[in-house]
Amino acid sequence: MEFRLDIEDYINETDYQWDGNNETVCHNLLIISRLYPPDLAVPLYGYAMPFLFVTTAITNLLVVAVLWQRHMRSPTNAILLAMALADTFTVCFPEPYFFYMYALNNYKEPLYPTAACYTWLFFHETIPNLFHTASIWLTVMLAGQRYIYVCHAPLARTWCTIFRVHVAIAVIFSLALFHQMPRFLDTVYDPVQVVWDEGEQAGHCVDACHVRYADWVQIVSLDIYYSIYFWFRVLFVHMGPCTILVVLNGLLFNAMRNAQKRRAQLLQENRKSECKKLRDSNSTTIMLICVIMVFLVTEIPLAIITLLHIIQTQWNIVIINYRLLYYYLIYSNSFIIFSYPVNFAIYCGMSRQFRETFRELFVRGSAFTRPPDGDSSRYSMVNGPRTCVTES
Protein backbone atom coordinates (compact mmCIF):
# COMPACT_ATOMS: atom_id res chain seq x y z
CA MET A 1 0.00 0.00 0.00
CA GLU A 2 2.88 2.33 0.71
CA PHE A 3 6.18 2.73 -1.06
CA ARG A 4 9.44 3.55 0.61
CA LEU A 5 11.77 6.21 -0.68
CA ASP A 6 15.54 5.91 -0.71
CA ILE A 7 16.89 5.86 2.80
CA GLU A 8 18.11 9.47 2.56
CA ASP A 9 14.53 10.52 1.88
CA TYR A 10 12.91 7.93 4.14
CA ILE A 11 14.72 8.90 7.34
CA ASN A 12 15.04 12.42 8.65
CA GLU A 13 17.77 14.74 7.52
CA THR A 14 21.12 14.38 9.26
CA ASP A 15 21.19 15.27 12.96
CA TYR A 16 24.56 16.42 14.30
CA GLN A 17 25.02 15.55 17.94
CA TRP A 18 27.87 15.05 20.37
CA ASP A 19 29.01 11.70 21.62
CA GLY A 20 30.66 10.97 24.96
CA ASN A 21 34.05 12.02 23.60
CA ASN A 22 32.70 15.39 22.42
CA GLU A 23 33.24 14.40 18.81
CA THR A 24 30.67 15.30 16.20
CA VAL A 25 28.85 12.22 14.89
CA CYS A 26 26.16 11.84 12.30
CA HIS A 27 23.02 9.93 13.24
CA ASN A 28 20.37 8.97 10.76
CA LEU A 29 17.48 8.60 13.17
CA LEU A 30 14.07 7.08 12.70
CA ILE A 31 11.76 9.99 13.57
CA ILE A 32 8.15 9.47 12.56
CA SER A 33 7.30 13.18 12.42
CA ARG A 34 9.68 13.60 9.50
CA LEU A 35 8.37 10.67 7.48
CA TYR A 36 4.98 12.20 6.69
CA PRO A 37 3.71 15.80 6.97
CA PRO A 38 2.19 15.92 10.49
CA ASP A 39 -0.42 18.51 9.52
CA LEU A 40 -2.02 15.87 7.26
CA ALA A 41 -0.86 12.63 8.86
CA VAL A 42 -2.27 13.47 12.31
CA PRO A 43 -5.89 14.10 11.23
CA LEU A 44 -5.97 11.32 8.61
CA TYR A 45 -3.78 8.61 10.11
CA GLY A 46 -4.42 9.52 13.72
CA TYR A 47 -8.14 10.33 13.82
CA ALA A 48 -9.85 9.36 10.57
CA MET A 49 -8.00 6.08 10.02
CA PRO A 50 -9.27 4.35 13.20
CA PHE A 51 -12.87 4.83 12.03
CA LEU A 52 -11.97 3.58 8.55
CA PHE A 53 -10.18 0.63 10.11
CA VAL A 54 -13.16 -0.34 12.26
CA THR A 55 -15.54 0.05 9.31
CA THR A 56 -13.29 -1.96 7.00
CA ALA A 57 -12.71 -4.70 9.55
CA ILE A 58 -16.44 -5.07 10.27
CA THR A 59 -17.58 -5.03 6.64
CA ASN A 60 -14.84 -7.40 5.46
CA LEU A 61 -15.48 -9.81 8.30
CA LEU A 62 -19.17 -9.77 7.36
CA VAL A 63 -18.20 -10.54 3.76
CA VAL A 64 -16.01 -13.42 4.96
CA ALA A 65 -18.81 -14.75 7.19
CA VAL A 66 -21.32 -14.70 4.33
CA LEU A 67 -19.01 -16.15 1.69
CA TRP A 68 -17.82 -18.85 4.09
CA GLN A 69 -21.31 -20.40 4.19
CA ARG A 70 -21.41 -23.80 2.51
CA HIS A 71 -23.98 -22.86 -0.12
CA MET A 72 -21.96 -19.75 -1.02
CA ARG A 73 -18.74 -21.59 -1.77
CA SER A 74 -17.73 -21.30 -5.41
CA PRO A 75 -14.60 -20.46 -7.42
CA THR A 76 -15.54 -16.79 -7.71
CA ASN A 77 -16.55 -16.47 -4.08
CA ALA A 78 -13.27 -18.08 -3.02
CA ILE A 79 -11.40 -15.23 -4.71
CA LEU A 80 -13.71 -12.60 -3.19
CA LEU A 81 -13.17 -14.14 0.25
CA ALA A 82 -9.38 -14.10 -0.20
CA MET A 83 -9.57 -10.46 -1.33
CA ALA A 84 -11.58 -9.52 1.75
CA LEU A 85 -9.00 -11.17 4.02
CA ALA A 86 -6.07 -9.56 2.19
CA ASP A 87 -7.68 -6.11 2.40
CA THR A 88 -8.40 -6.58 6.10
CA PHE A 89 -4.79 -7.53 6.85
CA THR A 90 -3.57 -4.60 4.75
CA VAL A 91 -5.34 -2.25 7.16
CA CYS A 92 -5.10 -4.05 10.50
CA PHE A 93 -1.29 -4.23 10.65
CA PRO A 94 -0.41 -0.50 10.30
CA GLU A 95 -3.43 0.92 12.11
CA PRO A 96 -2.34 0.19 15.74
CA TYR A 97 0.98 1.93 15.11
CA PHE A 98 -0.69 4.88 13.35
CA PHE A 99 -3.04 5.29 16.29
CA TYR A 100 -0.20 5.09 18.79
CA MET A 101 1.96 7.55 16.87
CA TYR A 102 -0.51 10.15 15.65
CA ALA A 103 -3.62 9.91 17.83
CA LEU A 104 -1.58 9.60 21.06
CA ASN A 105 0.96 12.22 19.93
CA ASN A 106 4.04 9.99 20.06
CA TYR A 107 5.35 10.85 16.61
CA LYS A 108 7.61 13.78 17.53
CA GLU A 109 10.42 11.93 19.32
CA PRO A 110 12.83 9.24 18.10
CA LEU A 111 11.36 5.76 18.08
CA TYR A 112 13.00 3.28 20.45
CA PRO A 113 13.91 0.45 21.21
CA THR A 114 15.15 -1.22 18.05
CA ALA A 115 12.40 -3.86 18.30
CA ALA A 116 9.86 -1.04 18.05
CA CYS A 117 11.68 0.35 15.01
CA TYR A 118 11.62 -3.01 13.24
CA THR A 119 7.97 -3.45 14.16
CA TRP A 120 7.16 -0.02 12.74
CA LEU A 121 8.90 -0.87 9.46
CA PHE A 122 7.25 -4.26 9.13
CA PHE A 123 3.77 -3.23 10.29
CA HIS A 124 3.40 0.08 8.47
CA GLU A 125 5.13 -0.85 5.22
CA THR A 126 6.42 -4.36 4.52
CA ILE A 127 3.51 -6.52 5.66
CA PRO A 128 0.78 -4.18 4.29
CA ASN A 129 2.63 -4.16 0.96
CA LEU A 130 2.63 -7.95 1.00
CA PHE A 131 -1.12 -8.26 1.46
CA HIS A 132 -1.89 -5.37 -0.85
CA THR A 133 0.19 -6.98 -3.60
CA ALA A 134 -1.76 -10.20 -3.09
CA SER A 135 -5.04 -8.27 -3.25
CA ILE A 136 -4.02 -6.66 -6.53
CA TRP A 137 -3.31 -9.98 -8.23
CA LEU A 138 -6.41 -11.57 -6.72
CA THR A 139 -8.39 -8.82 -8.46
CA VAL A 140 -6.65 -9.67 -11.74
CA MET A 141 -7.47 -13.32 -11.14
CA LEU A 142 -11.10 -12.42 -10.46
CA ALA A 143 -11.37 -10.51 -13.73
CA GLY A 144 -9.61 -13.27 -15.65
CA GLN A 145 -11.89 -15.93 -14.24
CA ARG A 146 -14.99 -13.94 -15.10
CA TYR A 147 -13.64 -13.39 -18.61
CA ILE A 148 -13.35 -17.18 -19.03
CA TYR A 149 -16.89 -17.69 -17.73
CA VAL A 150 -18.38 -15.11 -20.08
CA CYS A 151 -16.24 -15.31 -23.21
CA HIS A 152 -14.85 -18.86 -23.15
CA ALA A 153 -17.46 -20.76 -21.15
CA PRO A 154 -16.38 -24.31 -22.19
CA LEU A 155 -12.98 -23.72 -20.54
CA ALA A 156 -14.59 -22.88 -17.19
CA ARG A 157 -15.11 -26.53 -16.24
CA THR A 158 -11.36 -27.13 -16.60
CA TRP A 159 -9.75 -23.90 -15.40
CA CYS A 160 -12.29 -22.49 -12.92
CA THR A 161 -12.58 -25.33 -10.45
CA ILE A 162 -12.43 -24.85 -6.70
CA PHE A 163 -9.17 -26.80 -6.49
CA ARG A 164 -7.41 -24.73 -9.18
CA VAL A 165 -8.65 -21.50 -7.62
CA HIS A 166 -7.33 -22.49 -4.19
CA VAL A 167 -3.96 -23.40 -5.68
CA ALA A 168 -3.82 -20.09 -7.57
CA ILE A 169 -4.66 -18.15 -4.39
CA ALA A 170 -1.89 -19.95 -2.50
CA VAL A 171 0.56 -19.18 -5.32
CA ILE A 172 -0.39 -15.49 -5.32
CA PHE A 173 0.18 -15.12 -1.57
CA SER A 174 3.44 -17.07 -1.81
CA LEU A 175 4.76 -14.87 -4.64
CA ALA A 176 3.70 -11.72 -2.76
CA LEU A 177 5.67 -12.94 0.27
CA PHE A 178 8.68 -13.76 -1.92
CA HIS A 179 8.47 -10.29 -3.48
CA GLN A 180 8.57 -8.61 -0.06
CA MET A 181 11.19 -10.85 1.57
CA PRO A 182 14.13 -8.50 0.76
CA ARG A 183 12.30 -5.64 2.48
CA PHE A 184 12.31 -7.59 5.74
CA LEU A 185 16.10 -7.77 5.55
CA ASP A 186 17.36 -4.62 3.80
CA THR A 187 17.34 -2.22 6.79
CA VAL A 188 19.20 -2.41 10.09
CA TYR A 189 18.40 -0.40 13.22
CA ASP A 190 21.18 0.16 15.75
CA PRO A 191 20.63 1.62 19.24
CA VAL A 192 22.25 5.01 19.80
CA GLN A 193 22.02 7.87 22.28
CA VAL A 194 21.66 11.46 21.15
CA VAL A 195 21.07 14.83 22.75
CA TRP A 196 17.54 15.71 21.70
CA ASP A 197 16.63 19.32 20.97
CA GLU A 198 12.84 19.24 20.65
CA GLY A 199 9.78 19.01 22.92
CA GLU A 200 9.86 17.91 26.53
CA GLN A 201 13.12 16.00 26.04
CA ALA A 202 15.04 19.05 24.74
CA GLY A 203 18.58 19.07 26.08
CA HIS A 204 18.37 15.53 27.41
CA CYS A 205 20.16 12.43 26.21
CA VAL A 206 17.61 10.08 24.64
CA ASP A 207 17.74 6.61 23.12
CA ALA A 208 17.06 6.32 19.41
CA CYS A 209 17.35 4.02 16.40
CA HIS A 210 20.14 4.64 13.93
CA VAL A 211 19.03 3.58 10.45
CA ARG A 212 21.41 2.04 7.94
CA TYR A 213 21.39 -0.32 5.00
CA ALA A 214 22.09 -3.99 5.61
CA ASP A 215 25.57 -5.08 4.57
CA TRP A 216 24.26 -7.31 1.77
CA VAL A 217 22.42 -4.36 0.19
CA GLN A 218 25.63 -2.34 0.06
CA ILE A 219 27.47 -5.30 -1.45
CA VAL A 220 24.82 -5.67 -4.15
CA SER A 221 24.80 -1.87 -4.67
CA LEU A 222 22.06 0.48 -3.54
CA ASP A 223 21.26 1.66 -7.05
CA ILE A 224 20.92 -1.88 -8.42
CA TYR A 225 18.86 -3.12 -5.47
CA TYR A 226 16.35 -0.28 -5.38
CA SER A 227 16.15 -0.06 -9.17
CA ILE A 228 15.23 -3.74 -9.43
CA TYR A 229 12.76 -3.57 -6.56
CA PHE A 230 10.89 -0.44 -7.62
CA TRP A 231 10.87 -1.17 -11.35
CA PHE A 232 9.59 -4.67 -10.64
CA ARG A 233 6.93 -3.19 -8.38
CA VAL A 234 5.78 -0.54 -10.81
CA LEU A 235 5.62 -3.03 -13.70
CA PHE A 236 4.23 -6.13 -12.00
CA VAL A 237 2.35 -4.73 -9.00
CA HIS A 238 0.95 -1.42 -10.25
CA MET A 239 1.01 -0.60 -13.96
CA GLY A 240 0.90 -4.16 -15.28
CA PRO A 241 -2.13 -5.36 -13.28
CA CYS A 242 -3.97 -2.07 -13.89
CA THR A 243 -3.40 -2.40 -17.65
CA ILE A 244 -4.61 -6.01 -17.63
CA LEU A 245 -7.70 -5.04 -15.64
CA VAL A 246 -8.55 -2.18 -17.99
CA VAL A 247 -8.37 -4.58 -20.96
CA LEU A 248 -10.37 -7.33 -19.23
CA ASN A 249 -12.96 -4.84 -18.01
CA GLY A 250 -13.40 -3.59 -21.56
CA LEU A 251 -13.82 -7.13 -22.87
CA LEU A 252 -16.30 -7.98 -20.11
CA PHE A 253 -18.30 -4.83 -20.74
CA ASN A 254 -18.46 -5.59 -24.46
CA ALA A 255 -19.49 -9.19 -23.76
CA MET A 256 -22.17 -7.98 -21.38
CA ARG A 257 -23.60 -5.64 -24.04
CA ASN A 258 -23.77 -8.54 -26.48
CA ALA A 259 -25.46 -10.63 -23.79
CA GLN A 260 -28.04 -7.89 -23.28
CA LYS A 261 -28.87 -8.00 -26.97
CA ARG A 262 -29.13 -11.78 -26.76
CA ARG A 263 -31.43 -11.48 -23.76
CA ALA A 264 -33.71 -9.09 -25.62
CA GLN A 265 -33.89 -11.62 -28.45
CA LEU A 266 -34.73 -14.43 -26.03
CA LEU A 267 -37.50 -12.31 -24.52
CA GLN A 268 -39.00 -11.80 -27.97
CA GLU A 269 -38.88 -15.56 -28.51
CA ASN A 270 -40.50 -16.11 -25.08
CA ARG A 271 -37.61 -18.31 -23.91
CA LYS A 272 -37.89 -17.22 -20.29
CA SER A 273 -35.71 -19.90 -18.72
CA GLU A 274 -32.67 -19.09 -20.88
CA CYS A 275 -33.36 -15.39 -20.48
CA LYS A 276 -33.30 -15.73 -16.68
CA LYS A 277 -29.97 -17.58 -16.72
CA LEU A 278 -28.48 -14.91 -18.95
CA ARG A 279 -29.81 -12.18 -16.67
CA ASP A 280 -28.22 -13.85 -13.64
CA SER A 281 -24.90 -14.13 -15.42
CA ASN A 282 -25.04 -10.47 -16.46
CA SER A 283 -25.79 -9.42 -12.86
CA THR A 284 -22.70 -11.23 -11.64
CA THR A 285 -20.61 -9.66 -14.39
CA ILE A 286 -21.89 -6.15 -13.61
CA MET A 287 -21.11 -6.58 -9.92
CA LEU A 288 -17.57 -7.76 -10.60
CA ILE A 289 -17.00 -4.94 -13.10
CA CYS A 290 -18.00 -2.48 -10.36
CA VAL A 291 -15.57 -4.09 -7.91
CA ILE A 292 -12.78 -3.86 -10.49
CA MET A 293 -13.61 -0.24 -11.33
CA VAL A 294 -13.40 0.76 -7.66
CA PHE A 295 -10.04 -0.98 -7.52
CA LEU A 296 -8.73 0.85 -10.60
CA VAL A 297 -9.87 4.26 -9.33
CA THR A 298 -7.84 3.77 -6.15
CA GLU A 299 -4.82 1.95 -7.57
CA ILE A 300 -3.98 4.06 -10.63
CA PRO A 301 -3.04 7.17 -8.56
CA LEU A 302 -0.73 5.05 -6.38
CA ALA A 303 0.86 3.58 -9.52
CA ILE A 304 1.47 7.09 -10.84
CA ILE A 305 3.02 8.20 -7.52
CA THR A 306 5.37 5.21 -7.52
CA LEU A 307 6.35 5.87 -11.13
CA LEU A 308 7.09 9.54 -10.37
CA HIS A 309 9.29 8.50 -7.48
CA ILE A 310 11.27 6.11 -9.70
CA ILE A 311 11.74 8.72 -12.42
CA GLN A 312 12.92 11.34 -9.93
CA THR A 313 15.28 8.93 -8.21
CA GLN A 314 16.73 7.22 -11.28
CA TRP A 315 17.18 10.21 -13.57
CA ASN A 316 17.27 13.09 -11.08
CA ILE A 317 14.36 14.75 -12.87
CA VAL A 318 12.37 16.89 -10.44
CA ILE A 319 8.74 16.46 -11.46
CA ILE A 320 7.13 17.05 -8.09
CA ASN A 321 8.39 18.11 -4.68
CA TYR A 322 8.82 15.15 -2.32
CA ARG A 323 6.80 16.87 0.38
CA LEU A 324 3.91 17.21 -2.05
CA LEU A 325 4.48 13.59 -3.08
CA TYR A 326 4.02 12.56 0.53
CA TYR A 327 0.73 14.48 0.68
CA TYR A 328 -0.49 12.57 -2.37
CA LEU A 329 0.70 9.33 -0.81
CA ILE A 330 -1.29 9.89 2.40
CA TYR A 331 -4.41 10.80 0.40
CA SER A 332 -3.95 7.78 -1.84
CA ASN A 333 -3.51 5.36 1.07
CA SER A 334 -6.55 6.78 2.85
CA PHE A 335 -8.62 6.55 -0.33
CA ILE A 336 -7.62 2.90 -0.80
CA ILE A 337 -8.71 2.04 2.73
CA PHE A 338 -11.92 4.04 2.30
CA SER A 339 -12.72 1.97 -0.80
CA TYR A 340 -12.67 -1.36 1.04
CA PRO A 341 -16.14 -1.02 2.64
CA VAL A 342 -17.50 0.02 -0.76
CA ASN A 343 -17.19 -3.59 -1.93
CA PHE A 344 -19.57 -4.63 0.85
CA ALA A 345 -22.08 -2.05 -0.41
CA ILE A 346 -21.67 -3.39 -3.95
CA TYR A 347 -22.32 -6.97 -2.84
CA CYS A 348 -25.41 -5.96 -0.86
CA GLY A 349 -26.72 -3.65 -3.57
CA MET A 350 -26.25 -5.95 -6.54
CA SER A 351 -26.35 -9.50 -5.17
CA ARG A 352 -29.64 -10.94 -4.07
CA GLN A 353 -27.96 -14.14 -2.91
CA PHE A 354 -25.52 -12.17 -0.76
CA ARG A 355 -28.37 -10.11 0.75
CA GLU A 356 -30.45 -13.18 1.52
CA THR A 357 -27.54 -15.03 3.11
CA PHE A 358 -26.59 -11.95 5.13
CA ARG A 359 -30.18 -11.49 6.30
CA GLU A 360 -30.56 -15.14 7.29
CA LEU A 361 -27.17 -15.20 9.02
CA PHE A 362 -27.28 -11.95 11.00
CA VAL A 363 -30.91 -10.87 11.14
CA ARG A 364 -32.73 -14.16 11.59
CA GLY A 365 -29.88 -15.88 13.35
CA SER A 366 -28.94 -18.79 11.08
CA ALA A 367 -27.97 -19.25 7.46
CA PHE A 368 -30.46 -21.04 5.25
CA THR A 369 -29.53 -24.32 3.69
CA ARG A 370 -28.82 -24.80 0.05
CA PRO A 371 -32.01 -25.19 -1.98
CA PRO A 372 -32.62 -28.11 -4.28
CA ASP A 373 -30.72 -28.08 -7.55
CA GLY A 374 -33.90 -27.37 -9.40
CA ASP A 375 -34.28 -24.02 -7.68
CA SER A 376 -32.23 -21.66 -9.80
CA SER A 377 -33.55 -18.41 -8.35
CA ARG A 378 -30.50 -17.97 -6.14
CA TYR A 379 -27.80 -19.73 -8.10
CA SER A 380 -26.31 -19.22 -11.50
CA MET A 381 -24.65 -21.93 -13.59
CA VAL A 382 -22.51 -20.54 -16.36
CA ASN A 383 -21.40 -23.64 -18.25
CA GLY A 384 -19.41 -24.75 -15.24
CA PRO A 385 -19.13 -24.23 -11.50
CA ARG A 386 -21.66 -22.05 -9.74
CA THR A 387 -20.82 -18.39 -10.10
CA CYS A 388 -20.64 -15.86 -7.33
CA VAL A 389 -23.98 -14.17 -7.16
CA THR A 390 -27.20 -13.52 -8.95
CA GLU A 391 -29.62 -10.66 -9.10
CA SER A 392 -33.16 -10.31 -10.20
UniProtKB/TrEMBL annotation:
<feature type="domain" description="G-protein coupled receptors family 1 profile">
    <location>
        <begin position="59"/>
        <end position="347"/>
    </location>
</feature>
<dbReference type="GO" id="GO:0008528">
    <property type="term" value="F:G protein-coupled peptide receptor activity"/>
</dbReference>
<comment type="similarity">
    <text>Belongs to the G-protein coupled receptor 1 family.</text>
</comment>
<protein>
    <recommendedName>
        <fullName>G-protein coupled receptors family 1 profile domain-containing protein</fullName>
    </recommendedName>
</protein>
<keyword id="KW-1133">Transmembrane helix</keyword>
<feature type="transmembrane region" description="Helical">
    <location>
        <begin position="324"/>
        <end position="349"/>
    </location>
</feature>
<feature type="transmembrane region" description="Helical">
    <location>
        <begin position="130"/>
        <end position="149"/>
    </location>
</feature>
<feature type="transmembrane region" description="Helical">
    <location>
        <begin position="286"/>
        <end position="312"/>
    </location>
</feature>
<feature type="transmembrane region" description="Helical">
    <location>
        <begin position="80"/>
        <end position="103"/>
    </location>
</feature>
<dbReference type="Pfam" id="PF10324">
    <property type="entry name" value="7TM_GPCR_Srw"/>
</dbReference>
<keyword id="KW-0472">Membrane</keyword>
<dbReference type="InterPro" id="IPR000276">
    <property type="entry name" value="GPCR_Rhodpsn"/>
</dbReference>
<dbReference type="InterPro" id="IPR017452">
    <property type="entry name" value="GPCR_Rhodpsn_7TM"/>
</dbReference>
<feature type="transmembrane region" description="Helical">
    <location>
        <begin position="230"/>
        <end position="253"/>
    </location>
</feature>
<dbReference type="InterPro" id="IPR019427">
    <property type="entry name" value="7TM_GPCR_serpentine_rcpt_Srw"/>
</dbReference>
<dbReference type="InterPro" id="IPR053071">
    <property type="entry name" value="GPCR1-related_rcpt"/>
</dbReference>
<dbReference type="GO" id="GO:0016020">
    <property type="term" value="C:membrane"/>
</dbReference>
<feature type="transmembrane region" description="Helical">
    <location>
        <begin position="161"/>
        <end position="181"/>
    </location>
</feature>
<feature type="transmembrane region" description="Helical">
    <location>
        <begin position="44"/>
        <end position="68"/>
    </location>
</feature>
<keyword id="KW-0812">Transmembrane</keyword>
